[in-house]
Amino acid sequence: MNRTLIIGATGNVGRQVVSQLSATGAQVRALSRNPDAARFPQHVEVVRGDLARPESLDRCLDGIDAVFLVWTAPPATIVPALERIADHAQRIVFLSAPLKTPHPFFQQPNPARLVGEQIERLIETSGLEWTFLRPGMFAGNSVRFWGPQIRAGDVVRWPYLAAPTAPIDECDIAAVAVRALCEDGHAGAEYVLTGPQSLSQFEQVSTIGRLIGRSLRIEEISPDEARRELLAGMPAVAVNMLLDAWAAALGQPAFVTSTVAELTGIPARTFLNWASEHAGEFRA
């Protein structure tokens, strides 16, 4: 593969894919709705495009061999956008979710799940050589979940503190994506990606507190309390899905895979590794 288009290049995973792919010497093109505001190294070609305006993708896809796709647009444009990708590229790596993983944490119904399933079905019949990445909980969600409370004081109020997840570093997701984009042998693969440890939410918050040298008081709150507080900054669909997933996860370890290590030859980063690198985001 010679030239890769990253759709979703300004997101947490997409930006890592751009960085790691560029380091291999590959030709990288990053799609952005606002190229003037996108900050990438000079050797990365930044193009203006928008999944919500499929006609804008034609120029972005010109000369492209492979596409990394993060879907960030309304469902109505899925079909025309994927048709254009299939007309230009040979390979696609889609950032999906663990839709088929038989663990209750991943089996809670939500509209985003339906969108992911539709995209996968269309990709499978598109003629493209495809790979699906299925990461679990992102470690980076910790900044959104607990960052505001930790920066503001020493009390963290949160529901389902005993619920375990296996947070994955976004860098590890990107490392697998780069291999699927650049190497042969990944066609038709569906990679479930997690961090290497099952950790309760209480353990994750405690880890952050230790790293920043703070004695945090972690308080359990009810789902109803959490819903009221979380709705101030998150869509209701996302809040309800998370609360249902954490409730379903109680009483059993998180689902953990060794896929990152198997594909990259490097063990997946622990939550402690991730928190050490991002400790500054939790300091006032």
List its traits.
284 residues, alpha/beta, Rossmann fold, 2 domains, 7-stranded parallel sheet, two-stranded parallel ribbon, 11 helices, 40% helix
Describe the structure.
With 284 residues, the chain is of the alpha/beta class. It folds into 2 domains: 3-135 and 170-193, Rossmann fold; 141-166 and 196-254 and 265-282, Rossmann fold (3-Layer(aba) Sandwich), CATH 3.40.50.720. 40% of the residues lie in helices and 17% in strands. It contains 11 helices and 11 strands. The protein has helices spanning 12-23, 57-61, 78-88, 111-124, 141-152, 170-182, 201-211, 223-230, 236-249, 259-264, 271-277; strands spanning 3-7, 27-32, 45-48, 66-69, 91-95, 129-135, 155-158, 164-165, 189-193, 199-200, 217-220. The protein has a 7-stranded parallel sheet, with helices on both faces. The protein has a two-stranded parallel ribbon with strand order 7-11. Strands 8-10 form a two-stranded antiparallel sheet. Strand 1, helix 1 and strand 2 form a beta-alpha-beta unit. Helix 1 (12-23) packs across helix 6. It is globular and about 55 Å long. The protein starts with a strand and ends in a 7-residue tail after the last helix. The model has no long low-confidence stretch (mean pLDDT 96).
